[in-house]
Design brief:
6-stranded mixed β-sheet
């Protein structure tokens, strides 16, 4: 199964996280020009996974009477800078993901893959936050602690604290 979810509740407000796996199903799904790095470093926003993700999101939003859903995936839907993530390491057809999030009233996608913190300009009205990495090969290794505020069934605010790795410990 390529989808998993968790529901957190506080003071009758709910926050739902749905994780989607866009790893390549077959090596042949990688871009033809990318060789082994594309096979190992790319994902694909498969239509069937997007469809299932939208369906699960709609069901959970209905069942719990809320729109406070965050999608989690390894790959950001789109990459704005080739230096941060070369094209042979991207989520193929990633615009499907951001479009589906917008259609599903999902305001945030948390992603990884690029190994450092990036808060993208909204894509199709959806905020995409890459969550950094303790193994950042370019900048300072770090990770983010997130805080979500939910009010009236919607995400009211998202804040985060970037913890950096210095002198053998995260600070």
């Amino acid at each position: 199964d390529r989808l998993r979810y968790a529901i957190f509740e506080r003071d009758s407000e709910k926050l739902i996280f749905i994780q989607a796996d866009f790893s390549l199903e077959r090596w042949g799904d990688a871009s033809a020009f990318n060789g082994i790095s594309g096979i190992l470093g790319q994902g694909l926003a498969y239509r069937k996974v997007i469809k299932a993700l939208k369906k699960l999101t709609a069901r959970l939003q209905k069942d719990f009477s809320c729109e406070s859903v965050v999608w989690l995936c390894h790959f950001p839907p789109e990459v704005e800078d080739d230096k941060i993530c070369p094209r042979n390491m991207e989520l193929l057809c990633g615009n499907r993901l951001s479009k589906a999030a917008s259609e599903s009233k999902v305001a945030y996608i948390l992603a990884g893959h690029v190994h450092h913190h990036i808060n993208y300009s909204p894509i199709n009205g959806v905020e995409v936050i890459c969550t950094a990495s303790a193994t950042d090969p370019v900048g300072t290794p770090s990770f983010n602690e997130f805080s979500f505020s939910v009010s009236s069934g919607k995400i009211a605010d998202v804040s985060w604290l970037v913890r950096t790795y210095e002198h053998g410990a995260f600070v």
